């Protein structure tokens, strides 16, 4: 779609000087501007291996930074992960507009790591009155590291100068690849960590979450591959994992034979530290290749948010839209049904459509410009003064779409928190929809509206300016 030039002289303005011409941008190869796809969560960066935690009403998602591998090699190169040494942070209040919080630079925090993949996060309120976050991650295939913070977006620190567990840790037996951690804190306040590839282990964490206070227990997971994760559902531990790529000849479980590289789950019928208490239940999502996407490895996270269960997973739909040939992944989300009384996980499918918006955006509250539904030619820069805050810019002319903005009253003006100089145009619903604001930006700027929208609309921000960096926006009435 192309936004055409439009003379604004015919419009009635206040004494404020508005730009005389509308910004022009051509949008193509976009997954989320021109269709009703809600996946992937972020369309400007490759991410994978999702995990999530809720804090103060927001859902925070973390993932492997596939983009770093892509940037270090080539978009058409195989994704072999060795250049990935950072994790990606994002959050939402409505499940469709996602705030990009930037990266956790694990190599800077823990210089001893080899690479960092597949995070798993939990949090708890502690005696100092603060919520503490514990983020475990794969230290390559060698082991599992951990970062801590008192904010879901940092600053993060590495409390250990070594992996919490690695291939040299005594007591692991034939679990020689203790990576892909899955962490949870149960209803009694005990922390648990699962990990492993081919062979899986489970242990109870110490009170400080930085060591173990139980032996390593074998999880008898049939055809185990990787992607360990833990949940507490109905007061019971639930262990999920990725089954391997083999055909399951001689399958002996009562449940249906899982397809290649699908996700299955296990439940204990007694003490989780008793290997014999664990029993395989079923598989709950196929490999993305079985749902019409490219085949790839498989990694999921189950999370209940605002009364509804979701499954976070990854596909490679984004790299296909970008016409990249490498195996770069993107985090997506779909709904899933979980019976909390029985811990039964119903079967789910990976989709492009994704999930519905559960809250509208209030334009009369200050909003982060990096909270987006879709982007085009947009860049993000870390704010050096605030952890997890990103500044939006474009090297050319870029566009941002914010979905489901509810104008409950008529606005009079629009203000931006920004630095540098440039121009911003704002349209309703589509990049060539009704123009409701157009303004020159010179630092923090307020502009009168060209029209006063009513009801629920998508907002399209068209941004241009070599020095322009935009932080926040807000309508006033």
Short description:
By secondary structure, this protein is mainly beta. The chain has helices at 66-72, 106-109, 317-321; strands spanning 48-55, 58-64, 87-92, 98-104, 116-125, 131-139, 143-149, 165-166, 182-185, 191-197, 199-204, 217-219, 224-233, 236-243, 263-268, 278-285, 301-305, 308-315, 330-335, 338-339, 344-345, 367-368, 371-372, 374-376, 379-382, 390-393, 397-407, 413-419, 421-428, 435-442, 445-448, 455-464, 469-476. Helices cover 3% and strands 42% of the residues.
What's the helix and strand layout?
Layout: E1 48-55, E2 58-64, H1 66-72, E3 87-92, E4 98-104, H2 106-109, E5 116-125, E6 131-139, E7 143-149, E8 165-166, E9 182-185, E10 191-197, E11 199-204, E12 217-219, E13 224-233, E14 236-243, E15 263-268, E16 278-285, E17 301-305, E18 308-315, H3 317-321, E19 330-335, E20 338-339, E21 344-345, E22 367-368, E23 371-372, E24 374-376, E25 379-382, E26 390-393, E27 397-407, E28 413-419, E29 421-428, E30 435-442, E31 445-448, E32 455-464, E33 469-476
Antiparallel strand pairs: 1-2, 2-3, 3-4, 4-23, 5-6, 6-7, 7-8, 9-10, 10-11, 11-12, 13-14, 14-15, 15-16, 17-18, 18-19, 20-21, 22-33, 24-27, 25-26, 27-32, 28-31, 28-33, 29-30, 29-32
Descriptive keywords:
mainly beta; disordered N terminus; 477 residues
Description:
With 477 residues, this protein is mainly beta. Helix content is 3%, strand content 42%. It contains three helices and 33 strands. The strands form nine sheets. A five-stranded antiparallel sheet has the order 1-2-3-4-23, with no helix packed on it. The two termini are 32 Å apart.
